[in-house]
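User: I'm putting together notes for a lab meeting next week and I want to include a structural view of one of the chains we've been expressing. I don't have a solved structure, so I'd like a prediction I can at least talk through. The sequence is below, exactly as it appears in our construct file.
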Amino acid sequence: MHRVLILYQNGFEKIKVIINESHLCLFQLYPFRPMRKLIVSMNMTLDGFMSGPDQGLDWHFTSWTEEMAESACEQLSKADTILLGRITYDAMAGYWPEQAAHALYSREDVAFADMMNHYEKIVFSKTLDHTIWSNSRVVHDGIEEEINRLKKQPGRDLIIYGSGKLVDGLLQAGLVDEFRIWLHPILIGKGKRLFKTASSRRMLILFDSKRFGSGVVMLFYKSHKQ
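Assistant: Thanks for the context. Below is the predicted structure for the 226-residue chain, given as C-alpha cells.
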C-alpha cells in the first residue's frame, strides 16, 4: 500500500509525493499549468444595455478616454484567443483590419488593433461558412466541448467581446470565469440587454474595481462556484 499526495509550490510546480510501506518518500516534480480563464469584457450602460436598439455603440465613445484605452490594451495583452458570436464577428471583421495603420491612433490603440488582428479568433456560428479576418476559424457545433478543450490548452486567457447570445449560453453552462463590466454613466432607455435570457439566479463575486476620470467604472466579477 502507498499514499499519493499532490502538493503545489509557488503555484507554478506540482510535486507528487509517494509514501510507500516503509514510509519512504519518493518525489516527482513537474510543471503545474493552471487552466486558462474565460473572461467576458463588456461595455454596459447604467440601465443594463450592451448596445442600442440598432446594435449601436455610439453611446460609449462619449466617455471613452486614453486612460481606458490603456486598460483595455493591458487586459487584451493577458489573453491570446478571442471568442465571438457571428454578429459581433461580422462587425469587427469589417473594422479592425484597417485600424492598425491608422495615422491618428495613439500607441495604445495601434497596439490593441495589432492584437485584435493577430490573435486567434474563434467564431461560434451555425450559419457562417467561411471567415474573412486573419487567424479566424468557425466552430459550428459542440460549443461547450470546444471551450473546455481550449481551457486545457497551454496559453493565456480567452476573452469575449460583445456576442450577447454566446455569453448567455456560456453563462448558463457555467463556463464563464470572470466578467469585466465597463459601466458607463449613461442611460439609453432601450437596446440589447447584457443578461437578457438569464433563467435562474446566479451569484457573482466582486473582487476588484477601477474608476476612470470620465466616470466609467470597471467592475471585476468572478463566478461563484457552487
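A couple of points you could mention at the meeting. The chain has two domains: 1-32, 34-223. The helical segments are 58-61, 66-77, 86-93, 107-118, 143-152, 164-172.

User: Perfect, that's what I needed.
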